[in-house]
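Before surveying the methods themselves, let us examine one representative protein, written as a sequence plus integers encoding its fold.
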Amino acid sequence: MSSDAFLMAFRRFVARKGLPKELWSDCGTNFVGAESELSECFELMSTELQEKLARQQVEFKFIPPGAPHFGGLWEREVRSVKHAIMCCLKDRVVTEVLLQTVLCEVEGLMNSKPLGYASSDVADVDPITPNMLLMGRRDSSLPPVAFNQGEELRSRKQWRHVQLIVDLFWKKFVSEYLPSQQIRRKWTKETENLRKGDQVLVIDNHAQRGEWSVGEIVDAHPSEDGRVRTAEVKVNQKIYRRPVVKLIKLSKMSQ
């Protein structure tokens, strides 16, 4: 929670993911203090060195004080991770290295979640993920390992405990967080029906960990009132009939 601790965390992030152009945060004293310290270090450099490093400066952007809703995008992601992990761990006390491993695996899952698609061909379902933006390549993660929960909880091998915790996190995330991404404006504003050709993320509670089912609407079925409540989705050359509450529309991302 100190500026020093944040700067070390920031350097770890840059070492793994690369240097960002902007950094958004609230007005916590650790963040503001870190920005001031970096600015002071830059001012103490020679003019020649400042010119060489000018392009590597990171711009800190702070949301207004007392307005956490300005950071709703990342606050919601953080809350969903913390809530799911607390539900998985409950009152158990785990080692630091185990918790770090869990968080890194969860980070990989969160950063592999589809954000949208950029292909000009609607038949080419090629979702953009945070990992692609961070690393410039496809998601690369180790496949999940299946263990017997009762036996492995009694095992002394912590890496297996990690797999059980991450499995529980995935189930919580899919069953509780993903459905919340459906926009609900009942009694206030009409929502647009899903249409043929829309790209969607399919919520599947039985999907393997880290498997995001992305498909294309090939047929929509309106009810008598004109509202579409079920649709045919093409995923990996197979067609499934799903209720719209299990479908999250992906937006087209500009290239």
